Amino acid sequence: MARELDVSRSQIIRDLLDRAAGEYKRLLQVAYKARNKNNLLLKMAGFAKSPTGKVAENIDEIYIRD
């Protein structure tokens, strides 16, 4: 195959590994999304919105005052 394509065997192996790694990455992304979709804590995250969008800053100010 290397002679027919006029590329080195090493390049063929690199290309195959890149392609396989890309497929595994895609599979892991799908699995990660499915797992996170059913995660109760992630569903709860962000359920309360701050009117100012600065909740963390406000909490820091409260701790500093105490």
Task: Please describe what this structure looks like.
The chain is mostly helical. The chain has one domain (2-65). Helices cover 74% and strands 0% of the residues. It starts with a helix and ends with a helix.
What's a concise summary of this model?
The protein is mainly alpha-helical. It contains four helices and no strands.
Give the number of domains.
1
| Number of H- or I-type helical stretches | 4
Helix-strand pattern: HHHH
Structural class: mainly alpha
Subunit organisation of the chains: single chain
Give a quick set of tags describing it:
single chain, 66 residues, mainly alpha
Topology:
Elements lengths: L1 H4 L3 H29 L2 H5 L10 H11 L1
